[in-house]
Amino acid sequence: MPTLVSVNVGLPRDVPWDGRVVHTGAWKEPVTGPRTVRRLNIDGDGQGDLGGHGGENRAVLVYQLASYRYWATELGREDLSPGNFGENLTVEGLPDDEVCIGDRYRIGDAVLEVTQPRVTCYRAGMRLGEPRMAALLVAHGRPGFYCRVITEGEIEAGQDIVKVADGPEHVTVAEADALLYLPGHSREALERALRVPALSAGWQGSFRSMLEESTSPPPAWQGFRPLTVSGIRAESSVIRSVTLTSPDGAPLPNRRPGQSIALRLGPGIVRNYSLSNDPGAPDYRISVKLEEHGAGSGFIHRDLKVGNTVDVAAPRGAFVLRDGAGPVLLISAGVGITPVLSMLHALAVSRRDVWWLHGARNGAQRAFAEEVATLLNRLSDSHSRVLYSSPDAGDADYDGVGRISVATLSDLGVPSTADAYLCGPAAFMADLKSGLADFGLAPDRIHSETFGATAGFTPGIDSVQVAPHVPAGTPGSGPEVQFARSAVAAPFGPPSATLLEFAEACDVPVRWSCRTGVCHNCETALVAGVVRYDPEPLEPPADGNILICCAQPSEDVVVDL
Ligand code: FES
Q1: Region 482-509: what's the mean pLDDT?
Q2: Do 203 and 237 fall within a single domain?
Q3: In this protein, which residues make up the domain named MOSC (predicted)?
Q4: CA-wise closest residue to 559 among 504, 467, 482, 450
Q5: How far apart are CA 386 and CA 222, in angstroms?
Q6: 515 lines ligand 1 (CB under 6 A)
Q7: pLDDT tens profile 422-461
Q8: Are residues 129 and 26 in the same domain?
Q9: 511 lines ligand 1 (CB under 6 A)
């Protein structure tokens, strides 16, 4: 009979780490006597970073005494004691290769349901003074697991743990962990795991993305290739389209609606722009807004001519129209129209219901009005709302004054089952994303693309928004690193040991969790160049991508950050 060995709790604290301060609840201490397990926490317990831990699906973390004995031998540690792995419940029995997602256990008065393996996170390494720990937990198949609380109640060390229900599909914790983090996962295994209703929403989202990736082709070519400027056209007073064609006239490879391309516009000037035309067209079209002091947009608006040659990287990006038959909501502001216009081209030959919501300053700055109207007319069921924030006296062809907001959705009667695609300035996106969630759209149906660099994700660390810049101090002597979305280029060098650390030194927004090549949160497209790894990732990233947390440039590189 499995037993509860120890109940461990701890409130979040600030811990110095690597020159920064990490707010973490990884420090837990055993308590004696009964404790009440509640929907979000055990009494006296808390999580520091609710993005990575905690919430209903991750209310209670369980770790096994057998794994303590294993790590004592493996790491030569005699100092490990309950709570050291950040777990709330230290248990005898319940091994990761037997416990299944969806299993339910009664302890004392409480009933818990297994929802997912432990989140692979650098803080396990901080807590144990072993930086490799996040990778080791996965590589050795001993992650432990999270539970949601089905029935709140009192528990106490020494109680028996009684299984009261089997999870469907019999996906063990170790299997689910390997599915996400280790190579060799099959489509069937992913689909099986997705049939377990108890699997947390976060892991379901990850498995769905992996299923989609398994059908996504790698970038059509590596690095840059020359394309010819075959057309330039003013779309509004501030937006100009550039059409790019293969020099030999052959059709360019297809792309997914919503993807973007990087262009090398001069020494140290690589810029990323969404494709705005039909994803099946033989050429590529970008549409660029002239920005004050923008080196890239300034070159395109003032210097680029038909007949010029430009180095272009293959289409990339995960902001793409998903397959499906349900309603679609395309929301954009200003030049954010470009990726959703490409999606509208793809949707115009479908039978899906489409809602088109667009905001512009005024008629002079609005682009693609005729093209959008033609595409919407092809659909049997389409709805459109165009708002101007500051219309001119002569403007006529718009639906109202103001900005696109959730109130606009309510007016139009948008169904909450729609898939929403948003593109525009950061403030517009932040308002709408939270508004859409309040409106009732499921988080995994809200897809967004911001101008420039994507938002960072730095678990447990407050990040201050600073404009990207070259690193302080003496320039490095290594290969040049260009961050395409952030418009920063500088030679690589110490003290940065990885591309992640170099990006952080440049205040380029980054996403990461384990920092040891396990979780793939830092996976980023490599537009050009070659990297080497130290340490080697547990599972290589998709073709054309790199894990920046353990990558160093072997030659000049362009990274899609
Ligand atoms: S941060 Fe986890 S793989 Fe890079």
Answers
A1: 90
A2: no
A3: 29-164
A4: 482
A5: 39
A6: yes
A7: 998 877 887 887 788 788 887 778 888 766 555 555 555 4
A8: yes
A9: no
One-letter amino acid at 346 equals A
Yes or no: say if 9 and 45 are a contact pair by the CB < 8 Å rule. yes
Of 256, 284, 313, which one is at a domain's C-terminal end?
Answer: 313
Rounded CA gap, 128 and 86, in Å? 9
Tell whether ligand 1 has an atom less than 6 A from the beta carbon of residue 28: no
Q: Which residues pair with 149 in a beta bridge?
A: 112
Atom of ligand 1 nearest to the CA of 537: 3
Largest alpha-carbon pair distance within the chain?
Answer: 80
Q: How far apart, in Å, are the Cα atoms of 64 and each of 98, 109, 171, 252, 281? A: 12, 21, 18, 55, 56
Residue from 181, 182, 512, 545 whose mutation best tests the ligand 1 pocket (most atoms within 8 A of CB): 512
Domain count, the chain: 4
217 Cα–ligand 1 center, Å: 23
Residue type at 114? V
Q: Supply the CATH number for residue 520's domain.
A: 3.10.20.30
The CATH number of residue 427's host domain is 3.40.50.80
Q: Based on the fold, state whether residues 261 and 408 are members of the same structural domain.
A: no
Paired sense of beta strands 551-553 and 531-533, if any = antiparallel
Closest CA to 478 of 457, 462, 495, 461: 495
Give CA–CA dist 274/450, Å, rounded. Answer: 11
Ligand 1 midpoint to CA 230 (Å): 41
CA atoms within 13 A on the CB side of 241: 18
325: CA distance to ligand 1 center in Å?
34
Q: Does residue 236 lie within any of the structural domains?
A: yes
Domain identity same for 194 and 52? yes
- Tens of pLDDT, residue by residue over 191-249, are 999 999 999 888 887 888 788 776 667 788 888 899 999 999 999 999 999 999 999 99
| Contact (CB, 8 A) for 112 and 7 | no
Distances (CA, A) of 503 to 371, 481, 539: 39, 9, 22
* Pair 230, 286 in one domain: yes
Q: Which atom of ligand 1 is nearest the CA belonging to 518?
A: 3
Average pLDDT estimate for 522-539: 88
Q: Is the CB of 512 under 6 A from ligand 1?
A: yes
pTM of the model: 0.71
The 8-class DSSP code of residue 120 comes to -
Same domain, yes or no: 353 and 406? yes
Does one domain contain both 205 and 229?
Answer: no
